[in-house]
Write a structure and sequence with these properties.
This protein is α/β, with parallel strands linked by helices. The protein is 21% helix and 30% strand. It has three domains: 5-110 and 239-301, FAD/NAD(P)-binding domain; 113-235, FAD/NAD(P)-binding domain, CATH 3.50.50; 323-376, Enolase-like, domain 1, CATH 3.30.390. Helix 1 packs parallel to helix 7.
């Protein structure tokens, strides 16, 4: 029997790659190594689970034993990879050295924390996995006041979920409107109005400077001088790829673990996929890029020719108070936004100087415009 394919991580990226690999190779052993309990769940569900009345255990879709049986794999849960030796083709797992034929890093991403002061900073929560969501539910209990730091995609989804559940939400962001990296101000204003309609208080153009314990809650001072008293503070300012393990192994790392169009890193037989990976300068922490990359990686692990490409992949923002669909232009794109609509919905399109459509943002009752616009977009990666 050949050495196994070892996959570090049992999130969507790692498990999807394994399923695609099994379409080409039914025999090579697969070993999953994961630091958590190995229970399979949908990570995007974390930001709207509160409103559905779901606890952490309710999100579980598959147990580790069932995953192992489905894929003919071994799942080593609660295990930590401390080192990779790319020359020897080994990984060290809780002190044990394991050999691999191919290694897949599906390490995901970690929460970014912005600097704040005060004795309550250590109590600030973030939700990047099911365990952290369980901690949030336990800490929240019957408390009804939450401050969310960050009005990006995840922050807005949590704000909508909490506010819709009867929790008083304060949303703070340095930007002038929500989702400012994904859509222009008129679209952000429409989303803001809907969230305010749920009772959300918003502070834009400022930061949280201090978080001090105050009885059973916290007193938060903002950069604009406002003072907000809440029961819990949640940080949702964004994610960064987990790269420390790869960097320690000598792999090329930029914003993420750098991979080619076959998902291979700078070391032979070592691959990366998902939120930790960077392809052609792109780090895309969304579902559809993982689905496309998984198919390519499954073939590559089996020694078959494949090359990664990405079509236009609009992203749905789960804010039912005012739904949003975005397909933002490339970060270096040159052009202008053109906006139409109002409080019930905004159509924002981003055009190059020659008029070509490079991106869009649709909100509210304009989401149906996707059918017209998406076919006009260029691929994300040709």
């Amino acid at each position: 029997m050949s050495q196994p394919v070892i996959i570090v991580g049992t999130g969507l990226a790692g498990t999807h790659a394994a399923k695609e690999f099994r379409k080409h190779d039914k025999e090579t052993p697969i070993v999953f190594v994961t630091a958590d309990d190995g229970r399979i769940y949908s990570k995007p569900m974390l930001s709207n689970a509160m409103g559905k009345g779901k606890g952490a255990d309710d999100l579980v879709m598959q147990e580790p034993a069932a995953l192992g049986e489905q894929l003919g794999a071994t799942v080593r849960a609660g295990a930590t990879v401390s080192a990779i030796d790319t020359a020897a083709h080994t990984v060290t797992v809780d002190g044990e050295v394991l050999a691999y034929s191919k290694l897949v890093l599906a390490l995901g991403a970690e929460q970014i924390r912005v600097p704040m002061e005060g004795d309550g900073v250590a109590d600030i929560l973030s939700v990047n996995d099911r365990v952290e969501y369980a901690a949030l539910r336990e800490r929240l209990g019957d408390r009804k006041r939450v401050l969310i730091v960050g009005a990006g995609l995840i922050g807005c989804e949590f704000a909508n979920d909490f506010a819709g559940s009867g929790i008083a939400v304060t949303l703070v962001d340095l930007a002038a409107w929500p989702l400012n990296r994904l859509m222009p101000e008129p679209a952000g204003d429409a989303l803001s109005a809907a969230l305010r309609g749920l009772g959300t208080t918003m502070h834009f153009g400022t930061v949280v400077k201090t978080v001090e314990r105050a009885g059973d809650g916290y007193r938060c001072t903002l950069g604009d001088g406002a003072v907000v008293e809440v029961d819990l503070v949640l940080s949702a300012v964004g994610l960064r790829p987990r790269t420390a393990l790869a960097q320690a192994a000598g792999l090329t790392v930029n914003r993420g673990v750098v991979v080619d169009r076959q998902l291979q890193t700078s070391a032979a037989d070592v691959y990366a996929i998902g939120d930790c990976a960077e392809t052609a300068g792109l780090v895309l922490p969304y579902i559809m890029p993982i689905m496309h990359a998984g198919r390519v990686l499954g073939a590559a692990l089996a020694g078959q020719a494949a090359s990664l490409s990405y079509p236009a992949m609009p992203v749905i923002v789960k804010t039912p108070a005012h739904p949003v669909l975005v397909s933002p232009p490339a970060p270096d794109a040159s052009g202008e936004w053109r906006c139409e609509g109002g409080p019930t919905g905004v159509r924002a399109t981003f055009h190059a100087a020659d008029g070509a459509l490079l991106g869009f943002a649709l909100t509210g009752d304009r989401l149906a415009d996707k059918k017209e616009l998406q076919p006009l977009l260029p691929p994300v990666l040709a």
